[in-house]
Write a structure and sequence with these properties.
single chain, about 475 residues, alpha/beta, Rossmann fold, 2 domains, seven-stranded mixed β-sheet, four-stranded antiparallel β-sheet, binds adenosine-5'-triphosphate, transport, ATP-binding, ABC_transporter-like_CS
């Protein structure tokens, strides 16, 4: 686009000024999110209540706090289902929060009413992942981009059309295409239409929810570059939601890493990529697809296990059920890998996720009424141990595990779990680690409490 065109867009913008000035108090962030929570309730219908089913909370977002300064891009990254989109939608007030506070230019978003709320709806816009489903297939792209101006009654008819033409050109589309329909465009072009629509009201702040995930790799970089150019030109502030670390690194100033509804690490993007602290961040960075088979093996190890359900998240640190660095009790002499294995076995016993009937070869052991006959117990315990542990355990731990598995042979699941819990309980399951508010903060017991950013435990001191 030529500089003349740029000027044309800017002057059209000036003519159509919406009259809203976000007057962010000096030194204040544009967006401040404090302890934001969003729970979805299941089993909450009248029928469920009549049937006596208890409502269950899906804790999609569970106490996230962060700030975004004017002109900055904050990335929100994490595996699918960790609460990224819900965070974005709730802070835009597209969803009602369960708890917490969001300030936009110093004003509480959830207390806005009337003209304040209308102004916020203009200033804060969203670009969604799937440009096809977010564009009405029956509307021409001219009408789609103009729709926000019509809804907010901004400018006269011809002024609106002029602004639409300028916007389409600015995002790299031709004015000749104004009367075409979304299906006539490629994925990348459709995303450009979505961006033009989001910019129609001259917003200050955009939530970009996976803006390039649905696009071919070759087109992704073009759309990201466009977003960067637009940010510089229109002084935009971005919250960029993505599960793709390369997208985050390309465009963000800072990044917040989410796991199961919480932020576990936040910091400047280069620092976080070069010196990740949280074991989850490290695992995410290491699980980027690799070329060689050896390295692929390593990937599988780094992020093993399923993400627990947000309906019943683990106590303490939510990542501890998958964490390769879960912290053993201080006095315990054990290497890290063995401790991880023991914790996983205990978790499987706690959730009764071991099939006793299939222990041994070809129905070797009969499990009657849930119990193994007395005479078979030693062989049963030995077979179960072989199944659960890769390597023989050191003698002291072997003894403890045998006692626990002997309880299992009699179907005493709770006693078996209690034996292992007494011996192996970790600070990671007892205490919830806080995030703190340093420039680079991490919510992990390896790095001490939130107030004390110095490492309280040397991560290498007990690694095997
Ligand atoms: N309307 C809803 N009702 C019930 N649960 C929901 C609802 N919306 C989201 N969830 C749940 O909340 C959790 C967080 O979802 P969310 O879409 O915010 O995650 P995400 O990190 O954006 O994932 P993705 O990248 O797959 O979109 C998930 O477990 C999801 O199933």
């Amino acid at each position: 686009m030529s500089s003349d065109d740029n000027r044309a867009t800017s002057s059209a913008s000036a003519e159509l000024a919406t009259g809203i000035e976000t007057d962010t108090p000096e030194g204040e962030p544009l967006v401040r999110v404090e302890n934001l929570k969003k729970y979805f309730w299941e089993n909450d219908s009248l029928l469920d209540r009549l049937l006596g089913d208890e409502p269950v909370a899906v804790q999609a977002v569970d106490g996230v706090s962060f700030e975004i300064r004017e002109g900055e891009t904050l990335g929100l990254v994490g595996e699918s289902g960790c609460g990224k989109s819900t965070t974005g939608e709730t802070l835009l007030r597209l969803q009602e929060p369960t708890d917490g506070r969001v300030e936009f230019a110093g004003t509480n978003v959830y207390e806005m009413e009337g003209s304040d709320l209308t102004a916020f709806r203009r200033e804060a816009q969203v670009v969604f992942q799937d440009p096809f489903s977010s564009l009405d297939p029956r509307m021409t792209i001219g009408d789609i981009v103009q729709q926000p101006l019509d809804i907010h009654d901004v400018g006269a008819d011809e002024e609106r059309r002029e602004r639409v033409r300028n916007l389409l050109e600015r995002v790299g589309l031709s004015v000749d295409q104004l009367d075409r329909y979304p299906h006539e465009f490629s994925g990348g072009q459709r995303q450009r239409i979505g961006i033009a629509r989001a910019l129609a009201l001259e917003p200050e702040f955009l939530v970009l929810d996976e803006p390039t995930s649905a696009l071919d790799v070759s087109v992704q970089a073009q759309v990201l570059n466009l977003l960067e150019d637009l940010q510089a030109e229109f002084d935009l502030t971005y919250l960029l939601i993505s599960h793709d670390l390369s997208v985050i690194r390309h465009i963000c100033d800072r990044v917040a890493v989410m796991y199961l509804g919480e932020i576990v690490e936040i910091g400047p993007v280069e620092e976080l990529f070069e010196d990740p602290k949280h074991p989850y961040t490290k695992a995410l960075l290491e699980s980027v697809p690799r070329a060689t088979t050896d390295e692929r093996e390593r990937d599988r190890e780094t992020l093993a296990g399923d993400v627990p359900s947000p309906r019943d998240p683990p106590s303490g640190c939510r990542f501890r059920t998958r964490c390769p660095m879960v912290i053993p009790p201080e006095e315990l002499d054990i290497d890290q890998e063995t401790y991880r294995e023991l914790m996983t076995v205990r978790e499987r016993i706690e959730s009764r996720d071991i099939s006793l009937e299939t222990v041994g070869d070809d129905d070797q052991f009969s499990v009657e009424d849930g119990s193994v006959p007395e005479a078979d117990i030693p062989a049963f315990v030995a077979a179960l141990k072989r199944r659960l542990f890769d390597e023989p355990l050191p003698p002291h731990h072997d003894e403890i595990v045998e006692t626990a598995l002997t309880e299992l042979a009699a179907s005493n699941w709770e006693d078996a779990a209690a034996i292992l819990r007494t011996e192996y309980e970790s600070v990671c399951e007892r205490d919830h680690p806080g995030l703190g508010n340093n420039t680079h903060s991490v919510a992990c017991h390896l790095y001490g409490t939130a107030a004390d950013s110095d490492s309280a435990v040397d991560p290498n001191s007990w690694r095997g």
